Automatic annotation (TrEMBL):
Record-annotated Ppx/GppA phosphatase C-terminal domain positions: 313-417
Name of the protein described by the UniProt record: Ppx/GppA phosphatase family protein
Protein source organism: Alicyclobacillus sendaiensis PA2
Domain Ppx/GppA phosphatase N-terminal: 19-301
A Pfam family annotated for this UniProt entry: Ppx-GppA_III
């Protein structure tokens, strides 16, 4: 039986809620909302949360409760982070919030916050070794991941908002330098961080996302999904130097920077630049999944170590359940696709990424029929690009979408699309088993025709794929009667 879970993350700068429908070990995103509440604003003087910031948070949470009621939420999982953790009146504020909203918040420790960020990343990104960071409003979390396991984690008591409040009065240039120095001093307390030197950095939170959006705008690039996007680590210093030369008003007009982040973007980047100088990462990845997804996977898997064995396989199975894909049919097409890859790999120069993309496309292509049987290929491509699918790089997901659409405009997509069509034709329309496929001489692909498939093949819906394959890839499908020895072996 499914139930709806609302996960609320009350942060120092923003408050977010994600509602998921959970059924066993599968889930479906239902609703997501964010509001900028600036809970930690004005806290630096006496380390107390102000009445104004608390009122903003309570007003936001009341709206969240209303939205959760409309979405028939069965279970609430509210957590709070650095603002309530650090404030002297944090416990009083927590009780007041509970009385006025009915939500009982769990205040995470810094290490717990870092761990949930790790769980959000490890279950949604195909990376084994990395340093994960989350620059918030009043703290910054950092975690070391080796072989998809959490090794160490820590929380620094500085974030983009409180560093701006600490040093903003000294002017932009001095503020950035003092913020960097403060972050470096806090990082030095955790010498184990050096074990992550030369590993990729994975960034959670608004600072990392804003940096990626700035990079995309500046390089005139587009990506269908920001999650997993990679950019050079050197860009951090470059952009920080540019932004600190600009006024806040000018930054507000830049594409990629939300208006509420324009003032604090440079202090957030100052912390990130400190991480880059210390760890010398080859590249920086952006993750849209963090604390809320980490809490989701802990709730979903119910294990002491809630890490899925394979991000891609778990995500594909979850997607199939969501869009009611017949797994037996999808598996038959995928098995045939992998058999064709094995037979034609050398001739078509197929690499590991090609095989992964083709396997994924075969598993997901039928999702389009959930929307409507007409134009199902286009529907499937849209769902692949815009659903919560994880386990491949953004460019690979884009290629999967092209393949399920049978898009022939790009050579690699055309090659894999034709192989997917051939797999569907053989496995679904003709009922051929993978073991009945073998590589013949030259560009010949032999199909054991035990049921005289040659006689019916031309009358099937996509019989034209055989001719398309021959023209485009110089692969000829040949139906042959198997020898008695082959039949005995097959049995």
């Amino acid at each position: 039986m499914s139930n709806r879970v609302a996960i609320v993350d009350l942060g120092s700068n923003s408050c977010r809620m994600s509602i998921f429908e959970i059924d066993g070990e599968s889930y479906r995103p239902v609703y997501e909302v964010k509001q900028n509440v600036r809970l930690a604003e004005g806290m630096m003087g006496n380390r107390r949360l102000t009445d104004a910031s608390v009122e903003r948070a309570i007003a936001c949470l009341r709206q969240f409760v209303r939205q959760g009621t409309l979405h028939e939420v069965d279970e609430w999982m509210p957590v709070a982070t650095a603002a309530l953790r650090q404030a002297e009146n944090g416990e009083d504020v927590r009780r007041r919030i509970e009385e006025e909203t009915g939500l009982g918040f769990r205040v995470l420790t810094g290490e717990e916050e870092a761990r949930y960020g790790f769980l959000g990343v490890v279950n949604t990104m195909p990376i084994h070794d990395a340093v994960i960071f989350d620059i918030g409003g009043a703290s910054s979390e950092i975690a070391l991941m080796r072989d998809r396991a959490l090794i160490r984690a820590a929380s620094l008591p500085y974030g983009a908002l409180n560093l701006r409040e600490m040093f903003g009065r000294y002017g932009e240039q001095s503020c950035v330098k003092m913020a960097s120095d403060q972050a470096a001093e806090a990082l030095a307390v955790h010498p184990w961080v050096q074990e992550g030197e030369l590993l990729p950095l994975i960034g959670l939170g608004g600072t990392a996302r804003a940096l990626a959006k700035l990079f995309l705008a500046e390089t005139h690039r587009k990506t269908p999904r920001l999650h997993g996007f990679e950019l050079p680590a050197s860009y951090v210093e470059v952009k920080l130097k540019q932004l600190q030369q600009m006024s806040v008003n000018k930054r507000r007009k830049m594409k990629g920077i939300a208006k509420h982040r324009a003032e604090i973007i440079t202090t957030g980047l100052a912390v990130l630049a400190t991480f880059v100088r210390t760890l010398k990462p080859p590249s920086l990845f952006v993750s849209r999944c963090g604390i809320r997804e980490g809490l989701l996977f802990e709730r979903l898997l119910g294990a002491a170590d809630p890490v899925v064995p394979s991000v891609l396989e778990f995500s594909v199975r979850n997607f199939q359940r969501h869009f009611r894909i017949d797994r037996a049919a999808a598996g038959a097409v995928a098995d045939m696709a992998m058999r064709l890859c094995a037979a034609l790999s050398a001739r078509l120069n197929l690499d590991a990424s090609d095989r992964l993309v083709l396997w994924t496309a075969a598993q997901l292509e039928a999702a389009g029929a959930f929307v409507h049987p007409e134009r199902w290929r286009d529907h499937a491509a849209y769902l692949v690009l815009h659903s919560d699918l994880y386990g491949l790089r953004p460019a690979e997901w884009q290629l999967v979408a092209q393949v399920v659409r049978f898009d022939h405009r790009e050579p690699r997509a055309k090659k894999l699309s034709l192989l997917l069509r051939l797999s569907r034709w053989l496995a679904l329309e003709l009922g051929v088993e993978p073991h009945e496929i073998s590589k013949g001489k030259g560009g010949e692909l032999q199909v054991a025709a035990r049921r005289k498939l040659r006689d019916i093949a031309e009358d099937t819906a996509d019989a034209k794929v055989a001719e398309d394959i021959r023209k485009a890839l110089q692969i000829t499908c040949v139906f042959r009667e198997p020898s008695s020895a082959a039949l005995t072996s097959a049995r």
